[in-house]
Amino acid sequence: MKRLTVSMLLVIALFICVPALVFAGGKTETAPSVALKDGPIIVGSNSAPRTLNPLFFPSRQDSIVTNLIFDNFVQPDKNGVIVGGLAESFSIAADGVTYTFNLAKGVKWHDGQAFDGDDVVATLKMLAHPDYAGGVDRVGQIVGVEEFKANPNGPFSGVSLSADKMTVTIKIKAPSATFLPGLYFQILPEHLIKDINLVELEKAAFNSNPVGTGPFKFKEWKVGDSITVVKNSEYYLGEPKVSSIIVKFGDLVALTSQLQTGAIDMLEVEEEGYNTFKNNADFVLYTYPMQSVDYVGFLTGPGRAADTREPRAVFSKNIRQALAYATNKEALVNGAYGVMGYAHDSIFPKGSIADSPNDNPYTYNVAKAKSMIEAEGYKLNATTKLYEKNGKPLTIELFYAESSAAQAAILKEQWKAAGVDLNLKLVDFGALISVLLRKSDANGNLANSLSFDKATSATDANFDAYLLGFAQESDANEYAQYFVNDPFWNFYHYENTDVQKWFAEQAITTDQAKRSEILQKISVQITEDLPWFTYAGKNETIVAGKNIGGLEPDTRGYTLNAHTWFLK
Predict the structure, then answer these.
(1) How do the domains of the chain map onto residue ranges?
(2) 495: helix, coil or strand?
(3) CA pair distance 100, 415, nearest whole angstrom
(4) What does the alpha-carbon distance between residue 19 and residue 92 come to, in Å, rounded to a whole number?
């Protein structure tokens, strides 16, 4: 459960080891051998961006536009390996804590100013500033960050520049597997952000009138209608092949009709849109897996408040596993997702370095589910067809929001076939989060109690099960907080000392192959213990007119390579 689902839905396969390994980015584009039209290319979007500042709580819808305007410092390639961006190459010293980034030359901001290391340093300082509250911490591992936060007018000792300002050196406190993926963000211009009052970052004029180094320059924002960008003829990776791109907003039904008539050129669609265009020779469909999973979360043990100490069926791993075997994932995916989903088993995204081939797939087996339930002392009531123990039916209470209604209804029918009564609890999303994040103190007093001791507060959720999804932003370490002794996010009451140890180990293991082995052990163990029962991953589909070339969407976002698009 992320606070925001942003565009960084990808897997990072991190290569860091031995002295001076160098990674280079950039590529040479081959010009298409067809007559090109000038443009514009019109992209449909069913939601307008909230901001065009990529470092102010970036969201997925924002990134559709900001990927056109800005460049990343470093970024993953299609296989998830971190390569260059504005830092066209980089190396990690033998000490594992010194990173050297060589900046791309000849890069200009859209207002004509030259890009150099001052812009990188200014962006890092903004992220480290005590008044910055625009997103996740990406600089906390850098040497001197605490001193800078205490005195933001002073130096940031862990960051330094070469004399020509084209080489940036960053020192971190200890070897880390997560630092480099955390640098996958877009750089802002020092000369325009230096005077922003970060206390009021939300109000900054830059947010709606951005200046970047990317392939397209911001032109205008017609609120509620569209955003237009025009090509940056001096783009350092090559001049874009179309004069402009327009991102047009509207509801999905209207945009689908506009795509059919040619009023727009491409659109991200859902199941109905997929079916509309799949047999139309005038369009090309691009379907690919997103870096997200959907799962059932289970309470795995008692908490501190009185109502979480009582025994529950889901405290038994056998019962949790029985429910997994009672789930026909393929039928669930077909019924709730169609082509927009696929059956999945790992807590980690499909194809990631953490997704183990050895996870238990919990192949649909009602007979096995029933035998596991019976092994826990339950007997089937011949009249109700439900399992009972001590006169009480085997009832699981499942919380879910409206977006998971189809999944909840299917699970109710599937688990009923295994003799389990699923009590569905539909709540709005905010209420669901409140259920999960309910707090108690060390003595079991709830947060709304007069006796509540805030100093010993921890999550003490009161549920059997719930439905949610998780979207990985940039690295598998984002999962750690949910499965270790985190007083805020581990609302399953889950405890496995091996998993805790492995999460700590992988965070400092800078050899990719070794880190992958550790993460896959975590995947296997959590799939065994089932605080999360992952049943599906999600696909995304972009539909484009056959006259659009150079479009290669993937998990990083479909506008990331827009400078290669062309119009036939």
Answers:
(1) 21-265+547-567, 290-539
(2) coil
(3) 55
(4) 7
Q: How many residues does the chain have?
A: 568
Superfamily covering domain 21-265+547-567: Periplasmic binding protein-like II (3.40.190.10)
Tens digits of residue pLDDT in 457-514: 999 999 999 999 998 877 888 899 899 988 889 999 999 999 999 999 999 888 878 9
Q: Phi-psi bin for 289: left (phi > 0), alpha (psi -120 to 50), beta? A: beta
Distance CA 209, CA 220 (A): 8
pTM above 0.90, yes or no: no
Residue with tokens 């919380």: 399
Nearest CA to 338 out of 270, 285, 288, 409 is that of 270
CB-CB contact of 327 with 411 (8 Å): yes
Q: Is residue 18 predicted with pLDDT exceeding 80? A: no
Positive or negative CA dihedral for 63, 68, 73, 78?
positive
CA nearest to 168, candidates 61, 85, 262: 85
What is the separation of C-alpha 416 from the centre of its chain, rounded to a whole number of angstroms?
A: 33
Domain 290-539 CATH superfamily: Dipeptide-binding Protein; Domain 3 (3.10.105.10)
Structure tokens at 300: 């795995």
